[in-house]
UniProtKB/TrEMBL annotation:
Domain Aminotransferase class I/classII large: 45-394
A Pfam family hit: Aminotran_1_2
Similarity remark: Belongs to the class-II pyridoxal-phosphate-dependent aminotransferase family.
Cofactor: pyridoxal 5'-phosphate
GO molecular function: pyridoxal phosphate binding; transferase activity
Protein name, UniProt field: 8-amino-7-oxononanoate synthase
Length: 420
């Protein structure tokens, strides 16, 4: 007898879903309220917010708010109504594409409705079953899901390990030669959890030997790295060697949408073969005109990035000076590693939010090894030095409680109460 497809849903809610009864509404799916920015409300209390990717503070910039409001007043939320190919194409979409391409030093660019679906579709369009994909094992979920669609061979290399990459490229070359295929290497410009830049310079140095094409997801690098803010490739002096450059608007651009950039032939091909764009509604005018204003500010106001990095340097230097382990981050993403269990982590986050007014993201096993707790801090240009000092003081206090067993005792007490 065929079993009910939904039996699995009742028995296994997934690695995160199994915690829903304890975590939902507080640790996951929390509801922040108030004006977007460093100071918001959580469950009726004022909190200092370190969980927004609004790196340059553009989300509430007066010129951005006006551009968004003017676009909404003139066009509403629906225009253009239809897919780009059929009825959703405008001069403004083309203008934003041209300006984005110029900004990241590529011949052309193409707008995408969302970063996640865009990346999945880019990977799907670029490779056939005869091609081989080699990608960093710590790649973002959108890359992993895009690779899952691939009907051919794929290999992961150890995170940011060029020696491991080369070993896998050797395997890829043999298969590609046998199948008359090509090789696509995928990495991130900035790894959003650990804060490391992808080793782009070292990767592109292998291109001549192994004849691969390189796709870089630079979601966290665009707007934050490089002399002009053009990203990790500009920062490392190898932007020209990135064949497919991708970024989302959901970070530095503080909006919705994304883009892919490369040479004219590549973008022309993607324009006619990206299924996620061919069969989906065009990016609404609010985000298109809003994107033009955001890019204008990013280009013409370097002080935004300078303020961001002043905050990044202050909080990262402060954490290091106080003996905190922040790994080897060399970007704005600031991970704080502590030792402890998942129950201890939950008690600690509750203490941070309820008693210290600090709101941030927490990461535990299986994303990171057992016994570690990662507090991910995202500095922005909107934070102040006073915010940073307050946070450093709070971190010292919670570390003491974690090390002296306070959180462990509290977690055990809660467990005993819930069992009773």
């Amino acid at each position: 007898m065929v079993k009910d497809l939904f039996d699995r849903i009742q028995k296994n809610k997934g690695p995160l879903g199994k915690w829903a009864s304890q975590a939902e509404g507080y640790y996951v799916f929390p509801k922040l309220e108030g004006k977007l920015g460093p100071h918001m409300k959580f469950q009726g209390k004022d909190v200092l917010n370190w969980s927004l990717n609004d790196y340059l503070g553009l989300a509430t910039h007066p010129e951005v708010l006006k551009a968004d409001a003017d676009a909404a007043a003139e066009y509403g939320a629906a225009y253009p109504m239809g897919a780009r190919m059929m009825s959703g194409h405008t001069d403004y979409h083309e203008q934003l594409q041209r300006e984005l391409a110029q900004f990241v030093s590529k011949e052309a660019a193409y707008l995408l409705n969302f970063g996640y679906q865009g990346m999945v579709s880019i990977i799907d369009a670029l490779v056939t079953k005869n091609d081989v994909i080699v990608y960093d094992v710590d790649s973002h979920a959108c890359i992993i899901d895009g690779v899952r669609l691939h009907m051919g061979k794929r290999f992961t290399y150890q995170h940011n390990d060029v020696e491991s990459l080369e070993k896998n490229l050797e395997r890829a070359v043999k298969i590609a030669n046998e199948q008359n295929g090509g090789i696509l290497v995928i990495t991130e410009g900035v790894f959003g959890m650990r804060g490391q830049q992808g080793k782009l310079r070292e990767i592109v140095a292998l291109k001549e030997k192994y004849n691969f094409r390189l796709l870089v997801d630079d979601a966290h690098g665009f707007g934050t790295l490089g002399k002009t803010g053009a990203g990790a490739g500009e920062e490392q002096g190898c932007q020209d060697d990135i064949d497919v450059y991708f970024s989302t608007f959901a970070k530095s651009m503080a909006g919705i949408g994304a883009f892919v950039a490369g040479d004219n032939d590549l973008i022309s091909f993607l324009q006619y073969n990206l299924r996620s764009q061919m069969f989906a509604k065009s990016l609404p005018m609010i985000y298109t005109l809003g994107g033009l204003k955001r890019l204008e500010l990013l280009r013409n106001h370097p002080e935004l990035k300078e303020k961001l990095w002043a905050n990044v340097n202050k909080i990262q230097n402060g954490l290091r000076e106080k003996g905190f382990n922040i790994g080897d981050t060399n970007t704005c993403v600031t991970p704080v590693y502590l030792e402890g269990s998942i129950p201890e982590a939950m008690v600690m986050v509750n203490d941070l939010r309820e008693n210290y007014g600090i709101f941030l993201s927490i990461v535990v096993y299986p994303v990171i090894p057992k016994g570690l707790i990662l507090l991910r801090v995202i500095p922005t240009a909107s934070h102040t030095f006073e915010d940073i000092d307050e946070t450093l003081t709070a971190f010292e206090a919670i570390r003491t409680k974690l090390q002296d067993g306070t959180y462990k005792k509290m977690a055990e007490s809660i467990s005993e109460t819930s069992e009773a």
